[in-house]
Every structure is written in structure tokens, then in C-alpha cells.
Design a protein that fits this description.
The chain has 185 residues and is α/β, with parallel strands linked by helices. It contains seven helices and five strands, in the order βαβααβαβααβα. It has a five-stranded parallel sheet with strand order 2-3-1-4-5, sandwiched between helices.
């Protein structure tokens, strides 16, 4: 697998993105970002009320995440991002920034073209039953378990030519980490 400066741990809410990403970053000495930390307050409020986000909610957030990844990778920092990135277009924005977006991220009119972020996508997969069971046990998160079905409905799993691996959440955490580490070799 081609070397990447950035790794995206993706999947629906409750798939273990943050846990896997943080542990992997700790083991590799890479910087870790949890995309949930970058949601604007309006998005958090919508999700907390059980209202699914739409593209207009997500695109500026994804553009901001791309800019963070681009900045770190350009400075030589390896990074891991935990982000749902449910649709291919969302992953394209993380890689290409506003050039991958169907709607523009900013209206400044700048024609600045930054290099794409070379991204390895790690898709954590699991059944609705397994993941909903995990969500019901989770406390203090703004994402309501009722929104899980909308995430499964929205999900476009990665496929060729995307640079990705798929790992079942039925594996234990150490097996998931070992699989990713092996892929990075």
C-alpha cells in the first residue's frame, strides 16, 4: 500500500473511530484529530436534537478539516483523523479541499491550489445491531443513537480507486490496530 502522510479512520457513529484513531496515533507518534471536536455549535445542536446534518452543514466543516490536514502534512507531520466521512464526496473534500466540494467552501475568490492530501482510508464496518448496541452504552456524546439509521442510509463505503482498507469492528481493538499497522508497512 502506498505511503500516506495522513490516515482517515471512518465509519458510522459508534464504530470506534476515535478510540482506534487515538490509540494508533499514540503508538505511531502521529498527531490525532477527532473531527467531532471541529463541528460548529449549530451542527452539535442539530445532532443533539436528532436532526441529521445535510451537505450545507457538513461541507464547511470538511473544508476546515482538509485545511488542518493539509497544513500538518505540508509541515512534515503525519496525522490521523477520526471522521465519519460517510460519502465519497466528503472524502474527496478531505483530500482536495474546496476543489472536491460540490459547493464552494469560501467565497474569497482565491485561486490558490494546494497539493492534495495523500490519504489512507480505514473504514471500520459493523452491523447496525452491533453498532447500535455500542451507542446505547455511550454517555455524554452529542450524537443521538436515533441518528444511526440515517448514517447507515447515507454511507457510501470506499471503493476503488480510493486508497482504503476495510476492517470489521467484530475484531478486538488490538487486532484492528495490528491490521492497520501491517498495512502501513
Amino acid at each position: 500500500m502506498a505511503a500516506s502522510g495522513a490516515l482517515l479512520v471512518m465509519g458510522v457513529s459508534g464504530s470506534g473511530k476515535s478510540t482506534v484513531g487515538a490509540l494508533l496515533a499514540s503508538q505511531l507518534g502521529w498527531k490525532f484529530y477527532d473531527a467531532d471536536d471541529y463541528h460548529p455549535e449549530e451542527n452539535r445542536m442539530k445532532m443533539g436534537k436528532g436532526i441529521p446534518l445535510n451537505d450545507q452543514d457538513r461541507i464547511p466543516w470538511l473544508c476546515n478539516l482538509h485545511d488542518i490536514l493539509q497544513r500538518d502534512v505540508a509541515s512534515g507531520q503525519h496525522v490521523i483523523l477520526a471522521c465519519s466521512a460517510l460519502k465519497k464526496v466528503y472524502r474527496d473534500i478531505l483530500i482536495q479541499g474546496k476543489d472536491g466540494a460540490p459547493l464552494k467552501c469560501d467565497e474569497s475568490g482565491k485561486e490558490e491550489k494546494l497539493a492534495e492530501v495523500k490519504l489512507l482510508v480505514v473504514h471500520l464496518t459493523g452491523s447496525f445491531e452491533v453498532i447500535s448496541g455500542r451507542l446505547l452504552k455511550r454517555k455524554g456524546h452529542f450524537m443521538s443513537p436515533e441518528l444511526l439509521q440515517s448514517q447507515f442510509d447515507t454511507l457510501e463505503p470506499p471503493s476503488a480507486p480510493e486508497n482504503f482498507i476495510q476492517i470489521s469492528v467484530d475484531k478486538n481493538l488490538s487486532e484492528i490496530i495490528a491490521t492497520i499497522m501491517e498495512t502501513l508497512k
